Automatic annotation (TrEMBL):
CDD domains associated with the record: Peptidases_S53
Matching PROSITE patterns: SEDOLISIN (PS51695), TAT (PS51318)
Keyword Signal: yes
Signal peptide: 1-35
Protein name: Peptidase S8
Annotated PANTHER family: PROTEASE S8 TRIPEPTIDYL PEPTIDASE I CLN2, TRIPEPTIDYL-PEPTIDASE 1
Organism: Catenulispora subtropica
Keyword Transferase: no
Peptidase S53 domain: residues covered: 86-412
InterPro entries (UniProt xref): Peptidase_S8/S53_dom_sf, Sedolisin_dom, TAT_signal, Tripeptidyl-peptidase_I
Keywords: Signal
Length: 412
């Protein structure tokens, strides 16, 4: 099988390091992290990749863990009447104009590689901290299965456990009443991850989040039909953390490609502002023009004859990151970022909006562009035409059509 991370053609501009995004962010709570993370100079950013650089044939998770945050709560367990560092559920619901306590009757799947043995317990600690309802295997709310739907889970991996915790916590924050299926692939190969996607859909999930990716190749169109062709299912995929450049499976025309922003409080009527997430060369929201996937009928930009990434976006900057609880490979409360955060957020927004009616739910956003927060500032690199890497009025590559402003852009 081809390496999902092998650079091909112009994709060579994306380094292996850039493809392996994992950045957790604390900037929402740490000014020093914001300053350091925003610098394009030589200073080391205060976050690390959650996953090791993959071997050939493997994908990279897109989670970044902030390393210099002063926590506001005790390291382990629930601290009543206190708020962990990083953006929490109330922040995200406010920023994106979303209803609280949503998701009832829906099933959201998270696809990741390897196993997190503490996934269920950690997710429910996160929920308890924020007063959200428990979601357990005993109640039938939560399922943790292997890539074929069985109970024998793959080997443990502390790096991907950070990704899993981030994904589960973002679903909990946005759609706390939804059922959740965590499907764990045996390895991070495209064939195993793709098999896990098929399993998630066969188990009834109408919303499937994928926070991984790698370089494009000529095999991608066959993967489109084998793993991602699920009409009526909202499949979200992180655009990548390597800044300007396209990754797969975000480039698939069957998915919603999710870019990333920096999200900050301000004095506007909305109360929040957003710009393109970009830390430095090789680190920021992925975007661009696919080398292999054809343009879907619902995408109308004219500077790319093929599929353009992304479609929509949400917070991803580690400098404005989200609170996460992780004990396998972690020490409890942490702050995370990367487009690994934005993908499960958008999958959960789809779940709040209800069962998709479009064959490819990404099309709905293009029919309701006014129902999104347009992100008009920032860039993730240098490119031509410039909209492929620069935020601007209307559609742009790094943030797509924008970020959620209610649910109208995610319904048929």
């Amino acid at each position: 099988m081809r390496s999902i991370l092998r650079p091909t053609g112009r994709r060579a501009v994306i380094s292996l390091a850039g493809a392996v995004a994992l950045g957790v962010s604390a900037a929402a709570v740490a000014t020093s992290a914001n300053a350091a993370g925003s610098s394009s100079g030589g200073a080391k950013a205060p976050w690390t990749r959650a996953c090791d650089a993959p071997a050939p044939g493997m994908a990279a998770c897109h989670a970044l863990k902030v390393t210099n945050v002063s926590q506001k709560v005790k390291a382990l367990g629930v601290t009543p009447n206190a708020t962990p560092s990083g953006l929490g559920p109330a922040d995200l619901l406010s920023a994106y104009n979303l209803p609280a306590d949503g998701g009832a009757g829906q099933t959201i799947a998270i696809v990741d590689a390897y196993n997190d043995p503490n996934a269920e317990a950690d997710m429910n600690t996160y929920r308890a901290q924020y007063g959200l309802p428990a979601c357990t295997s005993a109640s039938g709310c939560f399922k943790q299965v292997n890539q074929k739907g069985g109970s024998k889970l793959p080997r443990n991996n502390s790096g991907w456990a950070g990704e899993i915790s981030l994904d589960l916590d973002m679903v909990s924050a946005i759609a706390p009443k939804a059922h959740i299926i965590l499907v764990e692939a045996s390895t991070a190969s495209m064939t195993n991850l793709g098999t896990a996607v098929n399993t998630a859909v066969s188990m009834g999930a109408k919303f499937v989040s994928n926070s991984y990716g790698g370089g494009e190749s000529s095999s991608d169109t066959s993967y489109d039909s084998t793993y991602f062709n699920h009409p009526g299912v909202a499949i979200t995929v992180s655009s990548g953390d390597g800044a300007y450049g396209v990754e797969y499976p975000a480039a698939s025309k069957n998915v919603t490609a999710v870019g990333g922003t920096a999200l900050k409080r301000d004095s506007s009527t909305r109360g929040w502002s957003e710009s393109v997430w970009y830390t430095k060369a090789g680190e920021g929201a992925g975007s661009g023009c696919s080398a292999y996937d054809s343009k879907p009928s619902w995408q109308k930009d004219t500077g790319c004859s093929n599929r353009t990434v992304a479609d929509v976006s949400a917070v991803a900057d580690p400098a404005t990151g989200v609170a996460v609880y992780q004990t396998y490979g972690g020490t409890g409360w942490a702050v995370y970022g990367g487009t690994s955060a934005s993908s499960p957020i958008i999958a959960s927004v789809y779940a709040l909006a209800g069962t998709p009616s479009a064959a490819v739910p990404a099309a709905d956003a293009y029919a309701h562009t006014s129902a999104l927060n347009d992100v008009t500032t920032g860039s993730n690199g240098t490119c031509s035409p410039s909209y492929l890497c620069t935020g601007g009025t209307g559609y742009d590559g790094p943030t797509g059509l924008g970020t959620p402003n209610g649910l109208a852009a995610f319904t048929g």
